[in-house]
Write a structure and sequence with these properties.
Helix content: 25-40%
Shape: globular
CATH class: Alpha Beta
Amino acid sequence: MLIRNIQQEDAEQFLQLRQQLDQETTYMLLEPGERETTLPQQREQIAQILTRGRQMIFVAEEAGKLIGYLEASGGNFKRNTHTAYIVIGILQAYTGQGFGTRLFEVLESWSRLNNFHRLELTVMVHNQAALTLYKKCGFEIEGIRKHALRVKNAYVDEYYMARLL
């Protein structure tokens, strides 16, 4: 198990990872086939992330293959520069093996080094595995976003969760 910062050379594999996550789970934001990011666009996005300093993507790698990621995006304004919004995705075949926990450990170290005080995310209320992981990593439910998403023609509520460092 290797957790590391994303690199420019990861663009193709990272795009494939995200497309596979879109296909195999309804817990990610995009529907299957909805992601329109091209490989050149993915390369540019990674280049921008690596130069900004207030944003990072950590990738989980197993046997040379990207199997998960955690993206942290810091606030851009004086009043929210202490916050980072989190998105995480791990391929189904690799869930429950500690990759999520390790990604959050690396995130915490990076967040402290970059003076973040608040980490926040949203999660569908019925995503029990993710809720268990987030609570284990110190996140608390702060509220509910009613009918936040529409998945398979049904409205889905989301929890708004955060962790203070």
